[in-house]
Amino acid sequence: MMKAIKTLGLLVSLTIAGIGAMAQDIVVIKPGDFLRGTIKGTDYSTVIFSKEDESVVQFKATDIQEFVWNGETYVSKPVVVNKKTQYKFFKIIEHGAIYLYSRGGNALVDAPEPKKTRIIPSIGIGAGTGSFGSGVGIGGGITILGGRRQEPAAKKMMPATFFMEKPGTGRLMEMPVEGAGSVEKNQQIKKVLLEQLGDDADLAERIKATENFDSKLIIAFVTAYNEAHK
After folding, report:
1. pTM of this prediction?
2. Per-residue CA distances from 199 to 88, 194, 203, 213 (Å)
């Protein structure tokens, strides 16, 4: 009986490891039209994608609707830059009654738990691990912003700018996360939060009473709002 249980446990472990090994990134060109492969990097205007046949292509934010990289979704949305409308990729941080997106920057927050990897023992052969890391450059000005990290890190780089959107309004409201400790930027963040979340009286009072904002606090306010307005 114990042997059967151990065998079952081994089969379950191997199945889970196999699912992880087959996990792929996805590029969605339009609903129902998508490609599977591996995301190599993005600069939020363009994404480098290696298809299943190992050919490498480059997609602009005007070419596709979204992509999924390591389980996180980046969507293409219009934004005004120097009075001109451009399409950029935005990483979805929170979604619901309010969407919170991020782009670029270096505000530090806690890193997520590292993904588990299957370890295969070997004899007489040195083994090492490798990963795509933040800030690794590739051709064409594209930067690797993250990847399949194999080892835990105490901190990870997070976006300098958050964008908030209430679905249906067609507006992306910008909040500077990097350097948010300044009086001017704290006031800018507070103004956006009150405009987007102010119809929740309890949250509005908490936002008004807050003098210093950071990425974690912004996410907490949006999460609380979405939980209360499902």
Report:
1. 0.66
2. 29, 8, 8, 20
